Recover the amino acids of this structure.
């Protein structure tokens, strides 16, 4: 998604001289479409993410439109206070692009995992949070939101070849994109988890369960009207996210259900424990946290058929 992000940003910069790109000494082999076209509007601040956000804040105050890019935890967690006291408090249009949300940097360990970025930014009223599902939707998201008022966070994946089948790059502000429609169950996916959610729905279809699958690319402020309309249609809803289950998409759905008295059951699929140091591929880490298509499908099936859970599973006894 990052290549699509930079290509789109460079095209926008050709028509708006306010756009400036900052990086914390990474993104090479991806940032070149912008850096080579606009060298006077590209700043490598080095491994100094707090300074990067400080500089971006000053640029925004001076009338520029800065985009600050780093790996998700470095872009959000390390400079969190700077984000709160600068762009948020003053409503300045700083754009933060965090690459590698979830387990994209699988082999690098917990320091590089973006598992709480959505949660901490959802806690800030007025901070727009966007999580596109694939490269095509990334371009659509940036084109639709680059000039929003106030601060914006783009949660990007590393994989530029990722494609959510059937989504076709669709995006509309403050809406949930539906790219599979069924009457039995709703699966809501955060950003790139749309691919796994769509595959899980295909597995469930073979078992006679027809799912509606929605990708939540506009995360905050909550797309509440769309979300409530969807939640009200189904007896059971599964959320899927490469993120801790507290504070992310699952929490967003739970809040909507509780605040509006909806009568649907919610099952949150996400990361429920701190990674224990074992590393591997992204697929391996998904399997450890119940996020493969097969695991999501099994979780959804059990939500619809609780009577099939054995006595041993319910009680822990044979």
């Amino acid at each position: 998604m990052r290549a699509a992000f930079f290509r789109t940003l460079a095209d926008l910069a050709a028509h708006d001289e306010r756009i400036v790109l900052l990086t914390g000494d990474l993104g090479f082999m991806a940032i070149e479409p912008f850096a080579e076209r606009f060298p006077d509007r590209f700043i490598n601040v080095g491994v100094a993410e707090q300074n990067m956000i400080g500089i971006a804040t000053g640029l925004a105050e001076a009338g520029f439109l800065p985009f600050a890019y780093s790996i998700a935890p470095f872009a959000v967690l390390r400079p969190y206070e700077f984000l709160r006291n600068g762009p948020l408090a003053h409503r300045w249009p700083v754009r933060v692009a965090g690459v590698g949300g979830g387990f994209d940097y699988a082999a690098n360990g917990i320091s590089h995992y973006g598992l709480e970025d959505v949660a901490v930014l959802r806690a800030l009223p007025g901070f727009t949070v966007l999580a596109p599902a694939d490269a095509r939707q990334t371009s659509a998201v940036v084109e639709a939101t680059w000039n929003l008022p106030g601060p914006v966070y783009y949660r990007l994946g590393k994989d530029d070849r990722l494609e959510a089948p059937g989504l076709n790059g669709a995006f509309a502000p403050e809406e949930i994109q539906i790219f599979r429609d069924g009457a039995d169950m709703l699966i809501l996916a955060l950003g790139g988890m749309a691919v796994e959610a769509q595959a899980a729905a295909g597995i469930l279809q073979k078992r006679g369960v027809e799912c509606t699958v929605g990708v939540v690319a506009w995360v905050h402020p909550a797309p509440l009207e769309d979300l409530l309309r969807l939640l009200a249609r189904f007896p059971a809803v599964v959320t899927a996210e490469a993120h801790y289950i507290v504070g992310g998409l699952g929490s967003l759905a739970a809040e909507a259900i509780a605040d509006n008295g909806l009568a649907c059951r919610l099952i949150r699929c996400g990361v429920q424990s701190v990674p224990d140091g074992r590393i591997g591929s992204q697929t391996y880490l998904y399997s450890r946290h119940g996020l493969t298509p097969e695991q999501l499908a099994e979780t959804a099936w059990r939500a619809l058929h609780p009577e099939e859970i054995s006595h041993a599973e319910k009680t822990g006894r044979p």
User: Anything to note?
Assistant: The chain has two domains: 2-156, 177-308.
